Amino acid sequence: MTFPKTLPAALGERLTGYRFERDALGRSAASVFRLEGEGLPALYLKVEAAGPFGELADEAARLSWLKAAGLPCPDVIARESDGKRNWLLIGALPGTDLASASALTPLTRVELLAAALSALHDLPIASCPFDHRLEKRLSVAKARMQAGIVDEEDFDAARLGKSAAALFADLMRLRPGNEDLVVTHGDACLPNFVASDGQFSGYIDCSRLGVADRHQDLALACRSIASNFGVALIQPFLDRYGLPAPDPEKLHYFQLLDEFF
């Protein structure tokens, strides 16, 4: 496979000597490629259509902030846009994502996820410039629904067959009365956390990082654990995180909200 002819000249020059392979893991709207070359550091290139719902600029800003906060994540190497497409070039973290790290037991992987979320949630919210409180996220969810980009065929099994409009009505009706605010990852699924040699090595796919209720992350983490390993490992994850009995209504709510993203 060769690079697309639409690759900006500056990126093409920077990536001389690299070969690339499509990375199909995850559900990002962007196309993701892993780049490797003889004697060269591994990189990732993300490409998306430019538009109001693009996330690569958000990801670059959040990675830079997270790095400055002292937590491990990929280096932002280059950003390009021609008005039709956006490109983001980032470094590769050592190791394997927690969904794929088969050398580690499932229990070890959920404990690493819990520790990584604890470290992120311990950051002071006053230091985080990214606001993902419900007031903002519900507005974005509504805009995505009105733009017709909510994939109703990709809803979780319990909600398949329902319309986005019906789910949005549920979001408004069931909205929690309070928010337990922390700095959240925003998409806290196992593939978005990386481990190397049995240790957590960093956060990836951080375009939705921001201040939100901690159940935003716990809800998606629990769903991801159940999907990958079964429900029996949800409680060990919650125990390691330090919240053995989260609010079940909030867990349901933030899984519902995720249908719009």
From TrEMBL:
Known Pfam families for this protein? APH (PF01636)
All copies of domain Aminoglycoside phosphotransferase, residue ranges: 24-251
Q: Does the keyword DNA-binding apply?
A: no
EC nos:
2.7.1.95
Q: Where does Mg(2+) bind?
A: N192, D205
> Where on the tree of life does the source sit, at the highest rank?
Bacteria
Any single biological process term in GO = response to antibiotic
Active-site residues are D187
User: Which keywords does UniProt give here?
Assistant: Antibiotic resistance, ATP-binding, Kinase, Magnesium, Metal-binding, Nucleotide-binding, Transferase
Its Gene Ontology molecular function terms?
ATP binding; kanamycin kinase activity; metal ion binding
UniProt catalytic activity: kanamycin A + ATP = kanamycin 3'-phosphate + ADP + H(+)
Name the InterPro entries for this protein.
AGP_Transferase, Aminoglycoside_PTrfase, Kan/Strep_kinase, Kinase-like_dom_sf
Which Gene3D superfamilies does this UniProt record tie to the protein?
3.90.1200.10, Phosphorylase Kinase, domain 1
Q: Which family does it belong to?
A: Belongs to the aminoglycoside phosphotransferase family.
Protein name listed in UniProt = Aminoglycoside 3'-phosphotransferase
Its source organism is Rhizobium sophoriradicis
